Amino acid sequence: MIDWHRIDTVLLDMDGTLLDLHFDNHFWLEFLPARCAEVRGVDMDDFLADILPHMRALEGTMDWYCIDYWSRLLDIDVLALKREVSHLIRFRPHAQAFLKALQSSDKRSLLVTNAHQNTLALKVEHTALDRYLDELISTHDFRRPKEDPLFWDQLREAYPFDPARTLLIDDNLSVLRTARDYGIGQLLGVAQPDSRQAAKIWEEFPAVGAFTDIMPRVGR
């Protein structure tokens, strides 16, 4: 699935790739709406009916990923609420073993996430992701999401890499399409980003089911 001899740099998404997307899906689709509905004294279904169209309209933009934006819009501390369910933050199966194998190889590994810096910090607090990767990068530092073609130029300027000799693993189809257009050499989707949901059907890109299937060769 991966030609490791042609890879120098590995770019890894966080939510749904290294970490189980169940935390995020539960938070945004269940926990946060329930709390907002409770505060407003309305039915959760009514609250969702009001907010979901707005959320969908922002999908793929920086505001979509920005907890500061949602805190202001909903008049609620989103980060504080995330802490209440942070016990759900966990690695996807064998992700740690995969990261350790990368550390023992000659590959440079960078986490590249659309998550807000404070969300990234929360997840590092619960997973120690910073122990496994060479760099942890939030797209909020560049003010452009991974779906924006210009982001990749900015990333390459800040963290030089050869696109043709780079692997990106991401569960977001739009991100993979943008990376393909930019010239990223090898691209993988994720078969089951959320452990509580059925596997996704991928057509445009190969998808990894288990990290044990793509372990890099250990040794320099």
Automatic annotation (TrEMBL):
Transmembrane segments: none
GO BP annotations listed: DNA repair
Molecular function per GO: phosphoglycolate phosphatase activity
A cellular component term, taken from the record's GO annotations: cytosol
Domain of life: Bacteria
CDD domains named in the record: HAD_like
Gene3D superfamilies linked to this entry: HAD superfamily/HAD-like
A Pfam family annotated for this UniProt entry: Hydrolase
This protein's name: Haloacid dehalogenase
Organism for this UniProt entry: Alkalilimnicola ehrlichii
